[in-house]
Each structure stands twice: as C-alpha cells, then as structure tokens.
Amino acid sequence: MPVPADFTSGAPCWIDLVSSDPDKATEFYGTLFGWQSETMGEEDGTVREYRLFSKDGLPIAGLVRNDQGQFPDAWAIYLATEDIAATARKVAEAGGRVLREPTQVGNQGSLAVFADPGGAVVCGWQPEAHQGFGLSAEPGAPCWFELLAADYEAAVSFYTKAFGWRPETMSDTDELRYTLNRPSRDSTAGILDARDTLPAGASSHWLLYLGTPDTDTAVRRVQELGGTVLRAAWDSPYGRMAQVADPTGAAFMLMHARSGNSSP
C-alpha cells in the first residue's frame, strides 16, 4: 500500500529531474523503477516540455529538459509552503537568493526556485490541484531527502527561518553531525555536515534517495542501462545503499528502506 507522504510546510513534496536527454532519462527510469511517462502541456505559459512520471497510477516525479546546459543534469527537490510569496521573502531575509520568482502553474499550484546560503538549489511549492508525489518510502518512490551542507550551522539556521523547520539534532559528534526536520519518527529530511567530505570550494547540494527492493540488483541494472556507480553499495543502520548517476550524470541514492523506518 502507498505510504502517505507528509506535505506539511517545509517538508519535501515533489521532485523534478532536469535532464539534457529526456528520452534517454525516460527509458532509464522507466526500466529501473517501472515508472510510466506522460507528456504534459506547457509548464507555466512558456513553451517547455514537461513529462510526468507515475507508478501504479500515482504521481512520482517530473522531468524538464535542460535546454541551456549551463548546469549539470540533476534532481531538484521541492519543499511545501502555504505561502510561496512569504517564503520568498523569508529566503532573502535568511541569507538565501531567489533564483526564480513565485510563478503560478495553471491550477496545479505555485513554484519558486531558491539558493540557500551554501549554494544548494531548492524549490518551493504551494500546492493547489497538485499536492505532490503519491508514493513514498516504497520501491520506486522517494525515501529520503538530505542536504549535504558546506556550512552546517548556516544551513540549519536557514531552513528553520525560511521554511519553518523544527530542527532536531540526531548526532553531534566529530564523526557525524546531522540535523533532522522534526523528531526522528516524524522527520521528513535531514542536513549532514559535509564540510570534510565535499571537495574544497564545493557548494552544498541536495541528495535524493529512491527506494529499491534489492540495492545490489539495482546497481547492476543502473550500469546495464548506461548509468554509473558513484559509491558502491554498503550496509547502513537504515538499509543497504549505493550512490549512482543516470546516463547523463544526474546523481541519486538507491536505498533499501526497511519497513517502518525510511530515514537514514
């Protein structure tokens, strides 16, 4: 059965793939996760192709073409907000930047694109007809969302002020500094202190976890489909994981989520 997603303010509610080769991406994710694809109308009054991925008849993700090629292909994370205009103001006040002003998307809702103080791109979504993904914490669905923060303290402060996060420290040691949005059993996303693991001068970035029934099998399938393995599979307290990239370089995590526990 679908696991209901938590779309309260500040929680991840949608994902978009920005891809330079939509046809190749559609084939890759369709084969790997069993996603179906449907080409939608214009995204927002501009002539821009938008594809909707679904699984078992429920929406999972969107795909937009990376026309400009100014940035690498990547997955974009949307955080829910009850007032996108107010969130844009809070983003600026909290030290972030508004990259795309709030825009109405038909009757679906309103979006905006931001950059946090560490440079991570994150989107805001004020839902109307479209609430968000219809499956979570299941094979072929989003399982977790994690910010790899170059400046951990600044990131925690930003998401608290701009998106109303209720930070809960999961670990505060030299080996692992990690903050959750809300207590563990109800958490929706996390922030990892990645200053010692990111390349020198690298920006913060969001990382998407997608569920799989068998991580090792999925890793082999990624390679067969033209993707790459960025980090070989390993066992964690939250399931077996691996980091991979699709054929055009968009990175994501594979995760075998254990029943009743989807957060790493």
From TrEMBL:
Coiled coil: none
Superkingdom per UniProt: Bacteria
PROSITE patterns: VOC
InterPro entries xrefs: Anthracycline_SecMetBiosynth, Glyas_Bleomycin-R_OHBP_Dase, Glyas_Fos-R_dOase_dom, VOC_core
Pfam family, one: Glyoxalase
VOC domain ranges (all copies): 11-127, 141-257
Protein name, as recorded: VOC family protein
